Amino acid sequence: MWVYLLQKLSWIILTPLFKFFLHLKISGQKNFNLVKQKQFFIIANHISYLDPFLVSATVPFFKFLKMDFRYMTKAYWFKIYPIIKFLGAYPLKRKQKTLEKTLAETEKFIEKGKQMLIFPEGTIPKQGERLPVRQGIAYLAKKYNLPILPIALKGSDRINGEKSVDIKKIFSRKYSVSVKIGKPFYYNDVADNNMDYHSVAYKIMEQVRMIL
Questions:
Q1: How far apart are CA 104 and CA 53, in angstroms?
Q2: In the CATH hierarchy, which top-level class contains the domain 2-209?
Q3: Confidence band for 126, pLDDT divided at 50, 70 and 90
């Protein structure tokens, strides 16, 4: 319950701040209405420490009221910002022997009916770097057959500091962020029978890159 309430409070506080300080521009918001199931995956490119909150801000408020989403992040961040636990974050368990063990916590949330925000690239790339896509999204998409909503972020990388967000850059109002929401799709829309999880994961991530 606390996660649900704090997510709604953060939406109310942060969304107008993003629009004022980062000139946040959202396009394709109507595509949220094409998701007919209550539970779904949101996938996005990961370029900034603010990305989970920027993605939240793209969701229409009355749609967001019906959501209680979760996202995975490095355990490191819980030591610095423990509040993120109450905003839907849960820690990544590294060095697990199998994909199933790595995603065990994610599957628990899915089975509880939560919406999941997933960054298929797994981490923030260095400038100009293109990271490999992790296979987890393909595994989850096939197993649960939930709709997948692609979201493309642009410009939020410019407000990064060395290890966190650069608050001075945000307050300067010199930087703009745009977010595009694509149309939902399913695993079978991008996968063939002879494709492995890595190949399907790249196909899934292409749906984000197509709208960048």
A1: 24
A2: alpha beta
A3: confident
